[in-house]
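quick one, 81 residues, struct below
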Amino acid sequence: MLSCIPLNDGVQSEACPLNMQYFMNIKEIHFKYYSSPLKRAEYLYKKYKGNKMLMQYEGYMHEYLAYHVNKDLEENWSNSK
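---
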C-alpha cells in the first residue's frame, strides 16, 4: 500500500489513497432526513445565507437548482429567522 509523507508544514505533496479500514470501523452513520424537497432546499438556502457563490463553491448549487425555488420563496426564507 502506498504511504504519503506530509511536508514540514503538514501539507501533503500529493493525493493519498483512502484507508478503507478507517471507514470499516465506523459503527454509526448520521444523516438528516427532510420531509420534502423544499425543506432540503430551505436548509441549503439558510445554511449558506442565500449566498449562491458559496453554494457553488461547496458543490451544492446543482442540487439547489434542481429544486426550482422561485425568488418569492427565497425572500420569505431570507425574512424568516
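The two ends are 50 Å apart (CA to CA).
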